[in-house]
Amino acid sequence: MKPLTLILYLLLTVVLAVATFVEYAQGTAFVTEHIYHSVPFVVLWGALGVLMIFSLLEKKNFQVWPKILLHLSFVVILAGALTTFLTSRKGMMHLRMGEPTFQYIEGETRMVCNVPFALELDTFYIDYYPGTDAPADYVSVVKIAGPHPQPSDPIPTFPKGEEQNDGQNISLPSLGRDKGEGLLFSISMNNVLDYEGYRFYQSSYDEDGRGTWLSVNYDPWGTGITYAGYVMLLVSMIGMMVHPRGGFHRLLKRVDSTRMKRDKQTDTEYLLMNNEELKSEKGAVPFRFFSFICVSLFMGTTSFAQETKKLSIISVEEAQEKREMQVIYHDRVVPLNTLARDFVRKLYGKDSFSGLTPEQILLSWQRFPDEWAYVPAIRIKSGELRAKLGIEGEYARMIDLFEYDKLTTYKLRHIMREASVAADESGKPSPLQKAVTETDEKVALVMMLQNGTLVRPLPTDGSVEPLGEAELKAELLYNRIPFTKILFMFNLTMGMVFLLLRIPQDPPPYPSQGRGVKCFARHFTLSPWRRSGWGPSALLLLSFLFALTGYLLRWYIGGRIPLSNGYETMLFLALCIMAFALLMARRFRPAIPFGFLLSGFTLLVAYLGQMNPQITPLMPVLVSPWLSLHVSVIMMAYALFAFILLNGVWALCVPREAERLMTYSRLMLYPAVFLLTAGIFIGAVWANVSWGRYWGWDPKEVWALITMLIYALPLHAASLSWFRRPRFFHAYLIVAFLAVLITYFGVNFFLGGMHSYA
Questions:
Q1: Sequence-ordered list of residues with C-beta below 8 angstroms from that of 39, at least 6 positions apart, any chain
Q2: What gap in Å lies between CA 341 and CA 138, rounded to an integer?
Q3: SS (H, E, C) 115-159
Q4: What is the pLDDT of residues 698-748, one digit of tens each?
Q5: pLDDT category, 285, cuts 50, 70, 90?
Q6: Which of 64, 108, 617, 632 could serve as a FRET partner for 467 with CA atoms 20 to 30 Å apart?
Q7: Do 399 and 407 touch, CB atoms closer than 8 A?
């Protein structure tokens, strides 16, 4: 890699990172005009593409064709993006029923432009999830009339019959020719109308239900060129993994030869102590440490002590009878047990308190609201808010949120008004405002319960299909077993034990030790189970199967693959980590403890963050097969990056192993970068299907690209001598993981954007 190419490469990475923070401070319009659509930014990309071509021609190494094709694919993708930037047109078209239009408003220029045919809205309706007010899809039925009435790609997906539109039943015509006046087509989320080079996407609608807004995209050349680059990229990445002269294949051979040499040697460093060493102070410290860790992880928190002598509580028997009652909650049919658990967790921060079941708490609060208003069960985490409310301790009563002499005066309203006046000029909500909003949501939940709007039994007219017996039992089982809590405690404990013990590979017999010690040495070793024992690998396999069971239960209950929010993607990431650990254990000895630790920390973050653990229907835009493919591929890349991170930490702690561990990190880096790259461009295709543009410079898109650029550098070790030094190589990849953290957590909770729901 030439110095000038490297300078431009690093400059581009820095500019992209800075742009996301400028967008956070100044807004999307500002950063789009002054950075993403500026001439210097385009020239920077173009110069990098030209230098990439010259670098390939100068090396004249055409034997490894996947490497050449890989770099050419990026050039083609950049050419397609430039073509789209220069020749495409985008805008919004507003349609009203019975009013044909040729015009749309171009996005950036706000100019009125024409299309060579007329569109007329025949019908607009919202498709709701059964028995709920949650939109499942937004559908516009349009009629095309113009000089070319026969469309190239009809979309015969519009449902026949009667549908509901704002409470009115309307008869919808079937698709096809309508009395010679034109053809009817449905446009909905992820269902695009492609006609005469123009693509129309469902964007918004009028409140009266008689109008719709469609995104218009005209890009006759750029999308095709870009997609050709995507195909070249896919072929080249597969070729890089299988080509006999490629870097990945050479690393595999090196690992095999290194492993064979090590197998022939006698391991002289034994960390398994004899009986005398176990009795010594030096040998006892680790086991006391393990005991402390185990006790700390498995200790339950004490339940809140409640004065229940005068409090009315329904019986356990009555609560047990009601737990299977089916209700509508979060826009789906669930047992009352699900609603009750979420109610208590939302208010109290835990699944229960005072030894009461969630059903007892929910139904008792519903039946005896005056008495339960005096129960301190509303958790307020903000110390500032507790001070303003005059509350001692972490929990408030309902009456604490109202004035003592007149319950109609709501304290939170006054506190929010004061916080809004004192807020800074940036317009961002202060911590106090966020705390008030969070507490207000809890109060609203209690009010809904008392007003009878929270618990919604199934309608008696049969309009909503109840859960089957298998679905009901599956959800109750899922609610009963705290999969995430059990897994993070077990995996973290096992990871620490196996990592700190560092039992050597192929331990010889220990005649001076007891039978139990020899059994432990034989089976609980960090080497592959085929050669040295089945202990740690078997435990990780059991943990993986247990996690997979919980994940599949969630999939079965929700009726969709669980990849739509942060909590579910963290569960999938933990599964990927454990699966990779089991696959790599044969060649990479620390894989098992690494797998335990990384999956344990991932599950701990999911458990502590409680990132939307409720199972809810998907937003209309997420109802796409591209979602699961896009998210799962990127999560697998993140899992490998996490392994590389821990491998680097291990290498810096054990310098004599740094060079060997560098080989393993390089081996994992190839599929990790390729998976991330594939995930990014799968997301681009999905964005084009959903919104009519394959790249929108959203903060998460940008940071995913930054992460790819950062991790791609160590793959150029032949040109960059720094990455041939083990210490620098591992240190760089440890720091590089910050980009992954920013991409996943920083964008979601700080920078925002279209991907902040994830």
A1: none
A2: 32
A3: EEEEEEEEEEEEEECCCCCCEEEEEEEEEEECCCCCCCCCCCCCC
A4: 888 899 999 999 999 999 888 888 898 999 999 999 999 999 999 888 787
A5: very low
A6: 632
A7: yes
How do residues 415-457 score in pLDDT, each as one tens digit? 877 776 655 544 566 778 888 888 888 888 888 888 888 888 8
Q: Rounded to whole angstroms, how far apart are CA atoms 339 and 343? A: 6
* Amino acid residing at 735: V
Please name the amino acid found at residue 620: P
HSE, CB side, 13 Å, CA atoms: give it for residue 86.
10
The pTM of this model reads 0.68
Closest CA to 740 of 715, 717, 709: 709
213 within 8 A of 93, measured Cβ to Cβ: yes
The token pair that represents 620 in the structure block? 């209309």
Of 669, 662, 668, 667, nearest in space to 708 by CA = 669
Chain CA centroid to CA 534, Å: 33
User: What is the rounded CA–CA span in Å between residue 630 and residue 628?
Assistant: 6
**Structure tokens given for 215:** 């995104």
What are the tokens at 532? 């040295």
User: What stretch of H or E contains 168?
Assistant: strand 168-172
- Distance linking the first and last C-alpha atoms of the chain: 36
Which residue do the tokens 């490894």 mark? 64
H or E element: which one contains 102? strand 101-106
- Residue for token digits 């095999």? 256
Q: Could you please report the per-residue DSSP string of 539-561?
A: HHHHHHHHHHHHHHHHHHHHTS-
Rounded CA gap, 348 and 59, in Å?
A: 65
Contact between 681 and 233 under an 8 Å Cβ cutoff? The reply is yes
Q: Based on the number of CB atoms within 10 Å of its own CB, is 180 exposed (0-12), middle (13-18) or buried (19 or more)?
A: exposed
Judge residue 98's burial from the number of C-beta atoms within 10 Å of its C-beta, 0-12 exposed, 13-18 middle, 19 or more buried.
Answer: exposed
Q: How far apart are CA 492 and CA 534, in angstroms?
A: 19
User: Tokens in use for 40?
Assistant: 């210097």
101-106 and 378-379 beta bridge pairing: unpaired
